[in-house]
Batch of 2 targets.
Target 1
Amino acid sequence: MSENAHPFDRTQLRRRRERVAGNWKNHNFLVKEAGARLVDRLDDVSRSFSSILDLGRNGGEIAAILTGRSGVQTIVECDISPAMLHLEAVSASSKKSCIHLLVADEEFLPFSDHSFDLVLSCLALHRVNDLPGTLVQIRRALRPDGLFLGCFFGGGTLGEMRAAWTEAEISEEGGASPRVAPFVDIRDAGMLLQRAGFALPVVDSDTITVCYENAFGLMHDLRGMGETNILRNRRPGFTRRATLIQMADYYRDMFTREDGRIPASFEIITLTAWAPHPSQ
């Protein structure tokens, strides 16, 4: 298997999401914020959606917002991690919609064509090896004139940490290794939607900046989010202590703000597109 064609170790992704599930609610702030922004976009659409797929369920943040929404009858929540699927995000008393949980890999969707009116995906698709292929599967799973709303981390994400790691590894180890995933650039996202056969594609991005006391606080959150390095060509073994300390020092020296804290940038790219229909 080519590392260039399949840069992400999806087995490792599943293991790490299994580990973080128990403490997920202490680290899901980005998913909650991005999910709320994603669902807010439905308010601009003058129709309801009865059958919905939440692709990359996380802790059920999307379903918690959608449950009880007018017209919603069925929500299918998928995640690669069984442990994440069983996190309780919606209380039993509030389940006015029928929710189904399914272990499924975003790269291999087990759905028939034209199964859903709406597919949403919140901060999951940046970890798939074949994003164009996944988008094609999403389009096929949608009924004609069905809507796809998805968001994922874009190319500007963790730019500060990427720069600090590069400087530290060059200084301590004589060369840099892949530490931060190769996120999709916003200039490519619209083209990917068109290649996948979607109609009326719209792409936009926003940046959420989170501030920390130091780089170790950021790394603690990334571990809790299950967003640590799953690249196949990552450097094997443990990171040298000297390299880790040097990275934190470079991060502080290059990016400290006036209040003494360091920023971590998360670019959120949002895709909006429709399954083709003659009425469009």
Note: The domain at 10-157+182-208+265-274 is CATH 3.40.50.150 (Rossmann fold).
Target 2
Amino acid sequence: MSSTLDEQLIEKLTINDCQVTLLGTAHVSKTSVDAVHALITSNNFDGIAIELCPSRYNALIDPDSLAKMDLFSVIKSGKAAMVTASLALGAFQQKMADEMGIELGAEMKMAAELAKESHTPVLLIDREVGITLKRVYRNVPWWKRIGLFSGLLASIMFPEKISEEDIEKLKESDVLDATFSQFSESSAEIYQPLVNERDQYMAHRIFNDIQSGQHKNILAVIGAGHLKGIKGYLESQLETAKPLEELDSIPPSSRSLKFIPWIIVALVFVGFSIGFSRAPELGWQLVIEWVVINGGLSALGALLANGHPITIITAFLAAPLTSLNPTIGAGMVTASVEAWIRKPRVGDFSTLKKNTVNISGWWKNRVSRTLLVFLFSTIGSAAGTYIAGFRIFEQLT
């Protein structure tokens, strides 16, 4: 036990007569699992905090939770992109766990199971992953967002071999952080919501529990990359931390960005009007090019996602129209059609997590394939809007 714990990052603090032990782990490391077991079984903790939010915790203890997902509701509520990102994130983490021959989040699961056996309260201290991803998205300049999302998918589809030495280096970071670091160098826009804000959030949750007086000896199992930050905020008693309510909110999107789609639509209609005013032939030529370019690229996206032929045709017909209506996207239409024609089976939901670990599985599983149809047809339509828009401008000038 001593040798196992000697290899770990452990910090002990005393705050308001409460003993807090911070254990920094690598989320897919075998030694981290052993350290959690050794530390909990050799101490009398009356509270065990783990770096999980409620949704990630439920997914950990209930692997079949994805089977309860309502795909149509996800598409209609505009959450398809977020669900796709979450699946890609989980798949990346699962790849690392598979290569190490260990269960994903095993040290967190070990902590929860040992807490249950000893009737010790489990404290979920991390911020909801959906809020974190949205705050990352909102914090990144709009022109970098496509690269952020495509980079996340690229980390799944074109992964590099991960060695045990690389896994152990995760003691200096966090699996969530490592996912984004695969395609992004050190970036303040990503670091703040992904690391620093979560340090503050988890420190808030631990400190609030200390203030409640319910526990006097707490163990916090956290990613090693968060240990230094959380320790600093706890020692300063949150003097420099943002309010918890602010950290737990989703920043509103920029007002100027809301007007950009409408400005583009207005310019396209102005272009059509100028074209028809000069000559009906020119006007119809502009309309045809708009339909062919916009619809064609969206249809190409649906084709690359291996969408049903009817879905591909729908993409071609819907994209030129949805691009002129910013309240609805081509992906929402194509994904709904794909899900209606190829209704996901119970087995598709139950094997979704397993299938998305491999690149071929994304196209094999009906749920993930529908999400790819949404994503690729949306990207195709967006590209078509700008290309066709520049083409109209070029024709008129």
Note: The CA atoms of residues 11 and 220 lie 10 Å apart.
